[in-house]
Design brief:
Layout: H1 3-9, E1 13-17, H2 20-27, E2 34-38, E3 44-45, H3 60-64, E4 66-67, E5 73-74, E6 77-78, H4 83-94, E7 98-101, H5 107-120, E8 126-128, H6 136-144, H7 151-178, H8 189-205, E9 210-219, E10 231-239, E11 242-243, H9 266-275, E12 281-293, H10 301-312, H11 316-328, H12 344-358, H13 394-397, H14 401-416, E13 422-434, E14 440-452, E15 485-497, H15 506-515, H16 524-533, E16 537-540, E17 543-546, H17 548-560, H18 567-581, H19 587-596, H20 606-609, H21 620-625, H22 632-635, E18 637-641, E19 644-649, E20 652-657, E21 666-669, H23 681-689, E22 695-699, E23 706-712, E24 715-721, E25 738-740, H24 752-759, E26 763-767, E27 773-779, E28 782-787, E29 790-793, H25 799-802, H26 805-813, E30 828-832, E31 839-845, E32 848-852, E33 857-859, H27 871-884, H28 891-896, H29 902-929, H30 931-945
Parallel strand pairs: 1-2, 1-7, 7-8
Antiparallel strand pairs: 3-6, 4-5, 9-10, 9-15, 10-11, 10-14, 12-13, 12-15, 13-14, 16-17, 18-19, 19-20, 20-21, 22-23, 23-24, 24-25, 26-27, 27-28, 28-29, 30-31, 31-32, 32-33
């Protein structure tokens, strides 16, 4: 029975979902007897501070928001910005006969539904309505087949929330006391930060090794064609039977792992090349093997984030924001899933499109099924796929920009998952020759031909390594046989150096977290966002670089809370939480064991949670109570070399030699954007050699005040030192004269005369014929003239002192330029954006450098620079900006430009107005009353969209 016919016999039904966008879409699929409203995310949570805790609670309960002495009872409060929405939901419920809780079908969605039921206290029948896609059929089926709340899922989510609260609220204050105020620790974020720091440590310890080899271009002596090339390129493989060393043969210390390989240096490589110059070469072997590649599984959350990063330049957060919009508007299935399973309906839809778009020869006899690889996956969900029982092609969706690109990626991957394997042949050819000094040299070349592309016609997966070869890349070799003679057209000597391990990108960090089974895949985007926002990690291009601050934080956690950031410990906790969700373990005893260490049968259970062996559950409370052994200075100090120490202070990192207040003590600030592996002894020496502190320039002859030059947050400047006792606040406050240095000036060359001239600005140039004063001023956007409210730009800073009244009047005699000034040439060209397919450049704007593709502008972040920014980083900044911006409405413009359709369009509008007319009159008054609530709801919606549960 359809929802519409049901309402003919029943009353009014209230359906509650999380977001207004989701509510709007679902409302269109239900009958007139249904009211669909959004909770706008969580309506209640643990308190954010003691001020939100009810007065009846005292002591530790007020601090933690959890009563640890009474079975870890959480203290839930309705969020201040949700009270009006809760009031509205209660009013709607009072007028309803049934309640449908239609939040997402995952742990968090189940928890939101439970909180709604607890707060609203419905006296009418309550149904749990679940669906994995927002289509008409799916929504109507969900209404017709509700279920009960899953209390196990609620318990598991509540346990996670309590655990994360205890971890964060107990460990974070330790960081405040020993490292810096405002820092945070988290069950997964701290482990993710440690992973990034450990990779940087590996880079710092890495020692590069140099090795050489030969590359030969060998000719068959016959004319070639695309299917049978005339030559091939082969690399030296062995000399006298000993394999030639390659990068993989060296350890991170720059030494060979084994002495069984031959390490060629430049001199030996060149000598070998010379000895092979006149050698005869022949094919020694041809080895051919069949090549087969099966399609990739449909997307789950983490693989979607990885591929969107590789192919589209999206960050994890941007990917999830765009996917959320696609889901809420009915284009894809639920985007937070661990499953690679496709429903029978989806498989049928994918197979139908394979036949339609590629032909029956690309369709396997039987549907493909994919087993979930993720431990404890929520298999009730499907993989991420296009919604519906017939997939819309990207062209049919009407989507644009980032939403179009991400939908296209999901659509291609889903269709490809139901196509035939790609098949072909892989070939290895070995070529040998004898040098003039009697050494036997063997070269090797590998090739691949694809005889049937299969699924690769639709989709090829990207790679994290930009130098990696993609699966669909062919390398054709000449058709040769064993014994064939070849001539060496060229023998080149190639030098190589081993490289440190690559830093994590968002994609590779997501992959690593999932492989280590740390945290839940659905939260990885928010975890990465947290460590970026906290300043533990910053980006250089797409690489995640740990800050010096994160080194101090991780050092403290590893030393004194070792188990809390141990990878196996964190994974085991995840297992335990899943056991609670499955009903195999109880939440309260588990939390008691974690917090108090009870049930450990050993004294000093804290050792088990620290660095000792034994059970992975121990007493967190005891660990955070005894902080006497933590030396704050030692935790934040790292040796650089030659007696230089890197220290992380409360105001940033600095290098220091010697002890404070001792002779020859040196100290210098370290640029916060510096990557830790770039802080060498040589660079530290450069920093220490630079003059630091204030530069005293002398006394102002007019006032007697000392004038100093300083390096400030916004660049170098000069200022005066006012006498002691000068009022700094109130009506009689005196502000010191201050002026920024010109771009042509520097701290070590500026003079007292320069400073006095700078502080004399603005300068009165003169007055015009009407007596209006003209001044020359240096502003935020450069030098300019001002006459009343009329400002005119100057071409150089020197004009501020040199320009005459006649020159100023001449400038004002010119018509004022309206609109934008002539465009400045770009500072850097980055290439073509994968989304807009427009050229991307870096420009200098009013607020600093920014990237643009002509449609979207994105300001460079503090850790970006014009010199270092990569094309991938530029595309990522644009993608993030598009994700935050509202979708552009182009439909109206299209209607205006199509005069032939005006009549039909107008007719439709009229029909809509007539239908809605009766409703409009009744709702105008209500609309006025709810304006404030709506505005509050919109604000809350923005916050909710950006804040899924972090860990």
């Amino acid at each position: 029975m359809s929802p519409t016919s049901e309402t003919a016999h029943g009353g009014r039904r209230l359906v509650i979902v999380e977001s207004p966008a989701k509510a709007k879409t679902i409302k269109g699929y239900l009958g007139p007897g249904y009211v669909v409203e959004a909770s706008v995310g969580h309506i209640r949570d643990l308190p954010n501070g003691a001020a939100e805790v009810p007065e009846k609670y005292t002591g530790e309960v007020r601090r933690l928001g959890v009563d640890v002495e009474n079975d870890f009872q959480p203290i839930y409060v309705v969020n201040a910005d949700k009270k009006s929405q809760v009031r509205k939901l209660k009013e709607l419920l009072a007028e309803s006969d049934e309640l449908y809780l239609a939040t997402d079908e995952d742990r968090e969605g189940e928890a939101i539904a439970w909180h709604l039921q607890e707060v609203l206290k419905p006296k009418v029948p309550v149904h749990r309505m679940v669906f994995h896609e927002i289509t008409k059929d799916a929504i109507r089926a969900a209404v017709a087949n509700p279920r009960e709340l899953n209390t196990r899922m609620v318990d598991a989510q509540e346990t996670r929330r309590i655990l994360d609260r205890l971890y964060g609220y107990e460990v974070s204050p330790v960081l405040w006391k020993k490292v810096m105020r405002g820092l945070s620790a988290g069950r997964v974020q701290s482990v993710a930060t440690r992973m990034v720091v450990e990779r940087e440590r590996e880079r710092i310890a890495f020692r590069s090794a140099e090795y050489w080899d030969l590359t030969g271009t060998f000719s068959t002596g016959r004319a070639g064609d695309p299917s049978d090339p005339s030559s091939l390129v082969a690399r030296l493989n062995s000399v006298d039977g000993r394999r030639v060393a390659q990068g993989r043969d060296f350890g991170p210390d720059g030494r060979l792992k084994s002495d069984q390989v031959l390490h060629l240096d430049e001199a030996n490589a060149r000598a070998l090349a010379a000895a092979l110059a006149d050698a005869s070469f022949a094919v020694r072997s041809v080895e051919s093997k069949p090549y087969r590649r099966s399609p990739y599984a449909p997307f789950r959350t983490t693989t979607l984030q990885q591929e969107a990063s590789r192919k589209l330049g999206f960050g994890a957060k941007s990917t999830m924001q765009v996917a959320q919009k696609l889901y809420e508007n009915g284009f894809i299935t639920y985007m937070r899933t661990d499953s690679t399973t496709l429903s029978d309906t989806a498989i049928s839809a994918a197979r139908a499109q394979v036949t339609q778009l590629y032909g029956a020869s690309y369709l396997p006899e039987k549907p493909r099924t994919y087993a979930g690889k993720v431990k404890n996956a929520q298999e009730a969900h499907e993989a991420i796929r296009p919604s519906g029982d017939r997939f819309r092609t990207p062209a049919e969706t009407g989507l644009t920009g980032d939403q179009f690109r991400l939908y296209e990626l999901i659509w291609k991957r889903t269709v490809a998952s139901q196509m035939k394997d790609a098949v072909g042949n892989s070939v290895t050819v070995r070529i040998g020759g004898t040098s003039s000094d009697g050494r036997d040299a063997e070269f090797s070349a590998s090739g691949k031909t694809i005889t049937f592309h299969g699924f690769m016609k639709a989709y090829v997966e990207g790679a994290d390594d930009p130098n990696a070869e993609l699966d669909d890349r062919e390398r054709r070799l000449p058709q040769v046989a064993e014994g064939d003679a070849l001539s060496a057209e060229e023998l080149s000597v190639d030098g190589h150096a081993t490289k440190p391990p690559a830093r994590y990108t968002e994609a590779s960090l997501v992959k690593e977290l999932e492989e280590r089974e740390i945290g839940r895949p659905s939260t990885y985007a928010s975890i990465i966002g947290t460590i970026l926002d906290r300043g533990y990690v910053f980006k250089k291009g797409t690489a995640l670089v740990p800050s010096f601050l994160s080194f101090a934080v991780v050092n403290l956690l590893e030393t004194h809370f070792g188990r809390l950031v141990d990878y196996d410990f964190t994974a085991k906790m995840e297992d335990d939480l899943d056991r609670i969700a499955q009903g195999e373990a109880q939440a309260v005893p588990w939390l008691r064991r974690f917090y108090f260490g009870e049930g450990d049968d050993r004294a000093g259970a804290a050792a088990g949670a620290g660095n000792g062996d034994g059970d992975h559950l121990g007493g967190l409370k005891e660990l955070v109570t005894d902080l006497g052994a933590i030396d704050a200075k030692e935790i934040s100090s790292f040796p650089v070399g030659d007696g230089i120490m890197l220290r992380v202070g409360r105001y940033g990192p600095y290098v220091e030699r010697g002890e404070k207040d001792e002779e020859n003590h040196q100290r210098a600030d370290v640029p916060e954007e510096l990557a830790p592996d770039e802080l060498t002894v040589e660079y530290a020496e450069e920093l220490l050699a630079k003059p630091s502190g204030d530069f005293e320039l002398g006394a102002d002859p007019g006032t007697g005040h000392q004038i100093v030059a300083k390096d400030g947050r916004y660049g170098p400047y000069v200022t005066e030192i006012l006498p002691d006792g000068t009022p700094k606040t109130g009506k009689n406050a005196v502000k010191p004269r201050t002026a920024s240095l010109f771009k042509s000036m520097s701290l070590d060359t500026v003079t007292l005369e320069d400073a006095l001239r700078l502080m004399s600005l603005p300068r009165v140039v003169g007055a015009d014929a009407e007596g209006v004063e003209i001044t020359a001023q240096n502003g935020r956007y450069g030098p300019y003239l001002k006459k009343g409210t009329d400002s005119r730009s100057l071409t150089s800073e020197d004009q501020l002192f040199d320009i005459t009244l006649d020159e100023a009047l001449a400038i004002y005699a010119q018509p004022k330029q309206r609109g934008r000034a002539a465009a400045k040439p770009p500072l850097k060209e980055l290439g073509t954006d994968p989304v807009s397919e427009r050229p991307v450049v870096v420009k200098d704007g009013r607020f600093g450098p920014y990237v643009t593709d002509g449609e979207t502008n994105a300001t460079l972040r503090t850790d970006d620079s014009v010199e270092a920014i990569t094309p991938e980083r530029g595309y990522e900044l644009l993608a993030e900006k598009r994700a935050k911006s509202p979708a552009k409405k182009t439909a109206k413009k299209a209607v205006k430009k199509a005069p032939a359709k005006k009549t039909a369009t107008a007719a439709k509008k009229t029909a809509v107005k007539k239908t809605a007319a009766t409703k409009t009159a009744a709702t105008k008054t209500a609309a006025k009353k709810t304006t404030t609530a709506t505005a509050a709801k919109k604000t809350a919606a923005k916050k909710t969209a950006a804040s899924r549960t972090g860990e």
